[in-house]
Design goal:
The chain is globular and about 55 Å long. Strands 1-7-6-5-4-3-2 form a seven-stranded antiparallel β-sheet. The chain is built from four helices and seven strands. By secondary structure, it is an alpha+beta fold.
Length: 157
């Protein structure tokens, strides 16, 4: 499975980069995320619950950031085990660039594979679920950034 996309984030490059590297922000924006804990400079463990078609599972996994080029982007590799539901693994390249004073262009290219019961669901259903999860993440991420900026603006007044 591959996902490619581009989003215009309504926040500065620095604010977007900071949020993309904040475990609490990411946890709040990833649907079903139960925990996201830093285990090293660029490494995290995660637990999340998800349902794709008829398969529900709790996944535990690892995230590792490589090719870090602050604040322009990184590659994030992930792998997760969901017990009898199966497993997932993949990576995503995330690139950021300023799009004016208060906006950031975020471009991503993700690749992922699944095994076990998840793989038996069918690629169309998995692809559709992945697109929905991605869209939901970015909607929550943008709302979180806007709320954060409003709070900062309120403190400055």
């Amino acid at each position: 499975m591959e996902l490619h996309g581009e989003r215009l984030i309504p926040a500065s490059l620095e604010a977007t980069w900071a949020a993309l590297n904040d475990p609490e922000t990411l946890k709040a924006c990833i649907a079903g995320c139960e925990s996201l804990e830093r285990t090293g400079d660029d490494a995290y463990t995660a637990a999340l619950a998800m349902k794709i078609g008829p398969v529900s599972a709790r996944f535990k996994g690892n995230l590792k950031m490589t090719n870090v080029d602050a604040p322009n982007g990184y590659t994030i590799a992930f792998d997760g085990q969901g017990g009898v539901a199966g497993f997932g693994k993949g990576s995503a390249d995330v690139r950021l660039s300023a799009a004016g004073d208060a906006a950031t262009r975020l471009v991503y290219d993700a690749r992922a594979s699944v095994g076990g019961k998840m793989a038996q669901i069918g690629s169309r259903l998995i692809d559709a679920a992945a697109r929905k999860i991605t869209d939901d993440f970015f909607k929550a991420f943008e709302a979180n950034l806007q709320a954060r900026q409003a709070a900062i603006a309120g403190l400055e007044e």
